[in-house]
Design goal:
The structure is a single chain. The protein is α/β, with parallel strands linked by helices. It has a single domain, classed as 2-Layer Sandwich (BirA Bifunctional Protein, domain 2). The chain contains nine helices and eleven strands. Helix 3 links the parallel strand 3 and strand 4. The longest helix is centred in the last third of the chain and has 20 residues.
Length: 248
């Protein structure tokens, strides 16, 4: 088996509802060892934060475009999943040392691995600090996009050198384990589509585009060229960080 085909076997391809069902299934039983779920979305879908409630008008706009809408088990804002995004979920047992870290510290632990992976792959990026986080939330509110996950920054997330978001993080803490969820934009997202479905204002897509970046734009490598070396590095780095890793 070639390296490319081996890496391809570790990447699920499917819809967002199937991914969310897989995450729920893993957390429905005690997580005995670190597990990794790598997902490439086959088609667009909107994932709402746990506290967000899509109204009937939004659901009608989504249905008219044949776009599924689903809530996730973590907080935050709306995300447009699609072929441009690589979703990576790391499941940790409650007894794992990283699971004992606080909400912010576990993000920083996960961030350290992601920062190494992306920089090793020639994707220039940097961590965020408290002033950047605070400023991003002010900017998102002022521009009317505070409902979007990728409009603001949070602890452990990564941005381009000029501060545009590249990697988003979330976490789910259950009795059976902890799930660290990350969304990496490999190529530009269809931001106007997200703004149209969620806010009925496709013009806000231009605002979101200015606040975000992607691996293709930062590295000059297209998503298909970048994907398999990145996944290889991802598995190797997280295996070292966790001590052992079961790739689903």
């Amino acid at each position: 088996m070639s390296a490319t085909s081996e890496m391809a076997s570790h990447i699920y391809s499917g819809g967002m509802p199937e991914e969310q069902a897989k995450i729920d299934a893993v957390l429905s039983a005690p997580v005995a060892e670190p597990k990794l779920l790598i997902w490439r979305y086959a088609e667009p879908a909107v994932i709402m934060g746990r506290s967000q409630r899509p109204d009937n008008e939004m659901l009608q706009r989504a249905a008219a475009r044949n776009i599924p809408v689903q809530q996730r088990g973590s907080g935050g804002g709306a995300v447009l999943a699609g072929p441009w995004m690589l979703s990576v979920t790391l499941f940790l047992p409650t007894a794992h040392p990283a699971a004992d870290l606080g909400i912010i510290d576990i993000f920083k632990w996960f961030e350290a691995a992601w920062l190494k992976i992306l920089q090793d792959q020639g994707i220039p990026c940097q961590s965020v600090d408290e002033p950047m986080i605070a400023e991003s939330k002010i900017t998102a509110r002022a521009q009317g996009v505070e409902w979007a996950c990728y409009a603001g920054l949070s602890h452990g997330e990564l941005v381009s050198a000029d501060g545009r978001k590249l990697l988003g993080l979330a976490q789910i803490r259950k009795r059976n384990g902890v799930a660290l969820v990350s969304g990496l934009h490999l190529s530009p997202c269809e931001w106007p589509l997200l703004a149209e479905v969620v806010a009925d204002a496709s013009s806000l897509g231009a605002v979101l585009a200015r606040l975000n970046s992607d691996c293709d734009s930062l590295s000059g490598k297209n998503a298909d060229t970048l994907l398999y070396p990145l996944v290889d590095d991802l598995i190797r780095t997280l295996n070292e960080a966790c001590g052992h890793l079961d790739v689903l």
